[in-house]
Amino acid sequence: MTSKKSIPVLAVAGAAVAALAITGTAHAGQLHHGPTKPAAKSFDRTATYPVFLNRPAGEDPATETVAEISDVSEDGRTLVYTDAAARRIGFLDISRANQPRGLGTLSLAQLGAAEDEPTSVAVVGRYVLVVVNTSASYTDPSGRLDVIELATRKRVRSIDLGGQPDSIAISHDQRYAAIAIENERDEEATPPGGAEGDLPQAPAGFVQLVDLHGSGPHRWSLRTVPLTTAGGRALPALVAAGIVEPTDPEPEYVTINRRNQLAVTLQENNGVVLIDLPTGRITSAFSAGTASVRGIDTVEDGVIDLTGSISEVPREPDAIAWVDDRYLATANEGDWRGGTRGWTVFDSRTGRVAWDAGNSFEWLAVRHGLHNEDRAENKGTEPEGLAIAEYGGTRYAFVGSERSNFVAVYDVTKPTAPVFKQVLPATNGPEGLLPIPSRGLLAVSSETDEAGVGVRAAVSLYQLGKDTPGFPSIVSGPDATGTPIGWGALGALSADPRQPHLLYSVTDAAYARTQIFTVDARKSPAVITRVLPVRDERGEPAGYDAEGIFARPQGGFWLAVEGASGPENKLVRLDAAGVTRQVVPLPADVAAGLGKQGFEGVTATTDKRGREIVWAVLQREVATDPAGVVRIGRYDVAAGSWSWFGYRLERTSVAGDWIGLSEITVVGDRLAVIERDKLNGPAAKIKRIYTVELPAGPATPGPLRVLPKRLALDVLPALRATNGWTQEKLEGLTVAGNGQVYAVTDNDGVQDATGETVLLRLGPGTKVFGNR
């Protein structure tokens, strides 16, 4: 069983090594990272299929529809997923990994009641096994197993499960199915002597075994494995294991090894139970133990601060998978008492920890710009899904982060020493991880659907075989303490005026403190090597909504700061140390006509006499200006005067959409701007770079002179080439000293977005901006 001894462990993230403590067992291990250069074979995303496209004819496209758990036909070509939100299962043709095709859905409401909800799915030969929650209430749980013929989508049998089911697993020899009957607790109920949502809450959960007799579903039979006594008392094995509340086990997730041993997690009870499938006998149980982890973000304050810690926190594992016939891996999502922000490998023979991720899983999120600071105080990355499979002789573990929208891939050929290989970006809430080794594929299904912000649930496909995967395009290196630099919301770019390979970016209001990042673009992925905190005139940490940055040849920076209202928009000049030295407000008449979409980009020119002219764009129209015309501002630093030019936007016909400018940079004798819509995913239409003439002097008084524009590059094909969710906020653009054109997307700090950042290398400026 798990001891309470605290053991020092090393967790590695990038080039950094940090010490942490793992409370739990005999020996926790070290996370081994692969080489900086990707190994010969990597997984690369081939397609992202939004499942709302697979909806029934006539259904409102904004209706919530998700993809939670999935399985695949024996030939690896038909994927079946559960859609709990819409009470149905869906079918996809994945014969072509780069072009999945919707095959429609099957409504569970038509097979039962309107509120019947699929919780998991598995494919056995010709049949799809769907476990369905039909519960009338928490105190009256019920469920069924629907057996669907894959070819006809007809139900051939329905089996009463006697309780509310969660997950299902099929044995390798296809002789058994195991179903966790959770009978979950009511988070708003208060048991006698307990707190709200506490355990125990009757009735107790159990495990159902289905004997899959070869003669067909009509002969299949159930066997129940109780996890309490007939009178509802605790089983001695669970008591001895230290299960939190053994009279209310609440089994969550099931997995079966090649010896037909079933392992089931009791998430709320922080334990694991092992069952012999042929006999249905409980062979052992153990506590998942607790962990104390240092070097993580534990305060939700808008700052990525990896100096926090958690102490003696229960792991509370969700998904579980056999690494081999001895070792078990768990994703320690947590529930109401715990969650340790990582995953663990247990020795099933002893119940002891063989390896624990410590802080390394959260560090992966930070290094890849996927850290969800909004969840810092509540379980962090929340590792929920986990799957293990062998591809070409290499055994991989896939661990999904529910809140940071990624899947981490590890080589677990040696179960006690996982080797980190890569991070795969996903759409929001990756729930189901489905390895398809026969085709070298991994499918990831996501449970979060947000039509209001245009980010929809999807099934993503990844193929093993690429030498260099498309993601990540940018990561962070370690800071002076060896901790990965926290970053996100890269809404602007500037070239370094002296070093041709360096770029600068800056954070916006997604974070409480403004920071400037130095990016080394020589490497692929590009690396954030340095962070410069920005300070206000008093020397205090600044919280600017910085939407534009320009590195001045004279030293320091200009920032374009957007305001919540027009008068709060301003240009800010920083010295080389990041301290505010000058604030330039918008003229009162311009500010009065702006809403919350103001400054979005800044650049500058310096003439032969040393006269500095700052150029800035406003994202949306000023109220007094013609519709569809936004302003490009010219600020003469020496004179302290503004003048304005007009820029005519494209038009959009999508309800609720608008188009605006989001960046400006100087390109020879022209100004280059980014013009984009508010749309993302398959709806995205306008992500373009245009150029206009660089005016030789200030604008003349009178109506805005609209500068004729010329299309330089449609960036949408490059964004779609990632095969992911097409990002909305193309917001940064610059031409580096090496002549290369770079653009970047703003990930909004992983809020109302997938969180993926795309740094695009668009080619030489002579090609992008040359005459066409």
UniProtKB/TrEMBL annotation:
Keywords: Signal. Residues 1-28 form the signal peptide. Residues 486-748 form the Phytase-like domain. It comes from the Bacteria. InterPro entries: Choice_anch_I, Mesenchyme-surface_protein, Phytase-like_dom, Quino_amine_DH_bsu, WD40/YVTN_repeat-like_dom_sf. Pfam families: choice_anch_I (PF22494), Phytase-like (PF13449). The keyword Signal applies. Residues 339-421 form the Choice-of-anchor I domain. SUPFAM superfamilies: YVTN repeat-like/Quinoprotein amine dehydrogenase (SSF50969). PANTHER family: MESENCHYME-SPECIFIC CELL SURFACE GLYCOPROTEIN (PTHR46928). This is Esterase-like activity of phytase. It comes from Micromonospora phaseoli.
